[in-house]
Write a structure and sequence with these properties.
The protein is an alpha/beta fold. The chain is 38% helix and 11% strand. The protein has a single domain, classed as Uracil-DNA glycosylase-like domain (Uracil-DNA Glycosylase, subunit E, 3-Layer(aba) Sandwich). The protein has nine helices and six strands; from the N terminus they run H-H-E-H-E-H-H-E-E-H-E-H-E-H-H. The strands form two sheets. Strands 3-2-5-6 form a four-stranded parallel β-sheet. A two-stranded antiparallel ribbon has the order 1-4. The radius of gyration is 17 Å and the shape is globular. GO terms for molecular function: uracil DNA N-glycosylase activity.
Length: 221
Amino acid sequence: MNVNIEPSWKVVLEEEFNKPYFSELSSFVQKEYKQTVCYPEGKNIFAAFDHCSFDQTKVVIIGQDPYHGPNQANGLCFSVQDTVSHPPSLINIFKEIETDIGKPYPKSGDLERWAKQGVLLLNATLTVRAHEPGSHQKKGWELFTDEVIKKISKEKEGVIFMLWGGFAKKKIKLIDKDSHHVLTSGHPSPLSANRGFWFGNKHFSTCNQLLMTMKKVEIIW
C-alpha cells in the first residue's frame, strides 16, 4: 500500500509506516483490494488525514469501521458521499446538531466540510470488505490509529476529543486529560440513541464554547 498522506501527518507518523506491523497491514490491504470489493476507494483510505492536517487538528471524532455498503464510505468517520442517503447514526448526529445549536438538517451527509475546519474524523479501522462489517479489524489498523491518537495527545494541546459509545470511550486511556478536553456520550446509533444515551449530549455547542475559551475559531457544524 503506497501511503500517500498529507505531508504534516507523514512527518508525525513516519515511524509507524516503517514498523513491521504496518508492512503486514499494507500487504493485507493491497491483497484485499485486488481480490474483492473494499471500501472506501483506495484514494480515500487516508482521507481523514488529507482533509485535516496535523497542525490544523483541533477536534477529534472517533468511529469504528467504514460503511460497508456501495458508494457510502468516503474515508471520514460517520460521513457518506454527497448524493447518498444518510445512515441512521448520521441522521441522529444531524438531529442532535439541530436541537443543540439550531442549525437546520443538511442535505449532504459529506462531512468534508467539518474536516476542513480542523475536525479529524478518524475511524479506528480504515478499510472494510463490502457487506462484511469488521472484516478488516485486528489486522493492524487499530495499532496505527491508536498511535495517531497518542501522537495528537502528546504533541498538541487543547484538542477536543468526542468519544461516542463504548468502543470510542476505551480510547480515553490514550489521551492526556490534563492537556486536552474529552467529551463522552452514548453512540448516535438508533440502539443507543433511542435508549436516551445520545440525544441531549450538547457536544456540538460545548465544543464550540471550549474553542471560544481557547480563542480558537469555532466549528460551523
